[in-house]
Amino acid sequence: MIDDRPEFIQQHISLQPYNTFRFDYQAEYFALIESVEQLVDAVAWARYKALSITTLGGGSNLLLQGDVSGLVLINRMKGISRLAESASHVEVEFGAGEVWHESVVWAVEQGLGGIENLALIPGTVGAAPVQNIGAYGVEVKDAISSIKVFDLSDLTEQILSPGECAFGYRESRFKQEWRDRYIITSVTLHLQKQPSLMLEYGGLKNVVPDGAGIREVFEAVCEVRRSKLPDPLEIANSGSFFKNPVVDADTYHAIKAQFPNLVAFEQDGGWKLAAGWLNDQAGWKGYRDHGVGVYEKQALVLVNYDCDKANALLDLERRIKGSVLEIFGVELEREPVLLGAAQCQ
Ligand SMILES: Cc1cc2nc3c(=O)[nH]c(=O)nc-3n(C[C@H](O)[C@H](O)[C@H](O)COP(=O)(O)OP(=O)(O)OC[C@H]3O[C@@H](n4cnc5c(N)ncnc54)[C@H](O)[C@@H]3O)c2cc1C
Fold this sequence. Notes:
Pathway: Cell wall biogenesis; peptidoglycan biosynthesis
Keywords: Cell cycle, Cell division, Cell shape, Cell wall biogenesis/degradation, Cytoplasm, FAD, Flavoprotein, NADP, Oxidoreductase, Peptidoglycan synthesis
Bound molecules: flavin-adenine dinucleotide
Strand content: 25-35%
Low-confidence stretches: none
Number of helices: 7
GO molecular function: FAD binding; UDP-N-acetylmuramate dehydrogenase activity
Structural class: alpha+beta
Organism: Marinomonas fungiae
Number of strands: 20
Protein name: UDP-N-acetylenolpyruvoylglucosamine reductase
């Protein structure tokens, strides 16, 4: 009977091991999902009980601020299959529960290019399109051929094209109006057989030797990232906490006149300001108080040293935003997805 809770669905489970900030809040119901069949069973039961459904991967782009009601699914749907091959590309379908970095390693080992700059980004393949992950001048949208989803509105599987997803800088429709509609079950990437390297960003040119291939780029990206970013297994964090704010030319020139060292990049007629630089100038780099802080090597990364709850981090976020607004007149926007019922403070 559909009323019977499938045995793989548990009740009142701590999400602490499932978010890289390691905040300790509970899921009302919880399941690890390893197949589409399990997904269908879990969704059917949740629908019958009128429960909301939240799908997570590695929890590395999450800010949990309270218990999560309804059913939390952790996507563990694995599998890598070569679907088609042309003279220049190979189409590869990755299960949404594959670990993103391991998928990059797989592609590099096969000699297939296009995602090597995205090495060491934590999390799963299924979450990669949600915020259109990007690093070192590459965004995942450029490698996506199609995305297989489970549509919660009619319980069917569908295939979406990248053009439908409104990909932008750390954005897509999955992060907005599709948030409660689609569960991504696999992502098909078109990977290059004769890779063209992207070395223009993050000083890669200076560390990648002449005549290098994707393996050398992959290794350089891993090395640079390890030297700059905290490993969530050692210090709890969710990577960049703020998006780089994009401002119009007048605002950029006004700030630049006052702060000549401003770090910014021209983009589509506007200017993308380095949020890490803004935080650094506002004096936050290395700040630590009440069990949370700002990473000492990168002021864009907020870290949790020893808090079980998110209150101190939310307070730190408010203070950083307030000071950046006061000094530069720029409003910072949070990058991780906020989840869970707000707690009284
Ligand atoms: C140290 C560190 C460095 C980072 N560096 C980068 C970086 O360079 N570039 C970058 O872009 N990001 C970076 N991130 C952020 C993060 O790694 C990515 O956003 C990653 O894609 C999140 O994957 P996840 O599986 O952990 O997603 P989760 O945190 O579990 O989920 C994130 C969002 O996606 C949704 N979601 C997850 N899986 C699915 C699914 N199958 N179907 C539908 N929705 C889903 C969730 O509901 C949630 O809204 C970094 C994070 C850390 C901790």
